[in-house]
């Protein structure tokens, strides 16, 4: 194969869930659609300039994100999420007025991800001012391991909640449909 195509295919296979065959198809499509390819490349370049909010690790263009800067948001309630996908699913529903904390991963000894990799010290710091911590994490080994770690780490007088029961066991937070997510969030229960 031509070296530059080979390199492109190799880069694309780094995306989660993309195998060699799909990667080759995408590579050839990009080469055949140079205008779109340039736009994609430019969008990636721009997105890579985003920073992580110094308070909650949400993505933003400056040091602090709009949610943390918003004086109307209730800083005493912190919703802990694995990625900003959950945040992006919740925000348009206008059912939550607290703030977030984005972990960007879950504790997973198999994958070599430990508590120190998740910025939990910062969460502990933020939680000092909080009344409620909502753990919006997957019902998976990693999600539960992370939740347990957070519960043990936080002062005992903070209320810790999770999405309501009634949603399927082993749920993946970001796969819940809009209404289920809304219900699970609003009817949250103590962890
Ligand atoms: Zn923030």
Summarize the structure.
The chain is an alpha/beta fold and 191 residues long.
What is the gyration radius calculated from CA atoms?
19 Å
What is the number of strand segments?
7
Query: How many domains make up the coordinates?
Result: 2
CATH topology of the largest domain: Dna Topoisomerase Vi A Subunit, Chain: A, domain 2
Largest sheet: 5 strands, mixed
CATH architecture grouping of the largest domain:
3-Layer(aba) Sandwich
Protein structure class: alpha/beta
Order of adjacent strands in the largest pleated sheet: 4-3-5-6-7
Helix tally? 8
Helix share of residues?
40-55%
Tell me the overall shape.
elongated
Strand content: 5-15%
Quaternary structure annotation: single chain
Mind telling me the CATH class of the largest domain? Alpha Beta
Protein name: Recombination protein RecR
Keywords: DNA damage, DNA recombination, DNA repair, Metal-binding, Zinc, Zinc-finger
InterPro entries: DNA_Rcmb_RecR, Rcmb_RecR, Rcmb_RecR_Znf, TOPRIM_dom
GO biological process, one term: DNA recombination
